[in-house]
Amino acid sequence: MYIRRVTIIWFLILILNPTLVAQTESTFPKEAVKSMHASGPFDVKVTAQNDSSSDPLLHRMTLDKQYHGDLEATGMGQMLTAGTEVKGSGAYVAIEKVTGTLKGRSGSFVLQHSGTMNQNVPQLTITVVPDSGTAQLKGLTGKMNINIASGGKHSYEFDYTLPGD
Question: How many whole angstroms separate alpha carbon 159 and alpha carbon 25?
């Protein structure tokens, strides 16, 4: 009964004083969030790690990347891979810390990679880890796509948002 009475009172206050709603909303400013796009080439060095796994289908590697273009940064990470007996099928997961500048804003962030290959058909998801952005990249969210040209050149497409942009 108490909750119903409080609800009715608030309802009457809002009907009788609609400017209260506008005043309440304006006291809590919302940060502008705009979708942005970055792209460019990158170089990657993948180094196999000496692990003690006796399974020839499981591997651990390090990633060392140099991003260019809209993202001028280095990426350092760890990757785990799993092959299968079927050629062209397998999977990988990786965590990569990216440090540098994104369209002039400096800081770092972490990317989570998850990829599968099903008989030479790739599916890849690369996502910014929530709350991993630092300095001027604090609040960064987004997804990255990797393109590999027929000659082996790598490039990225990065759709992201930053508070206040």
Answer: 30
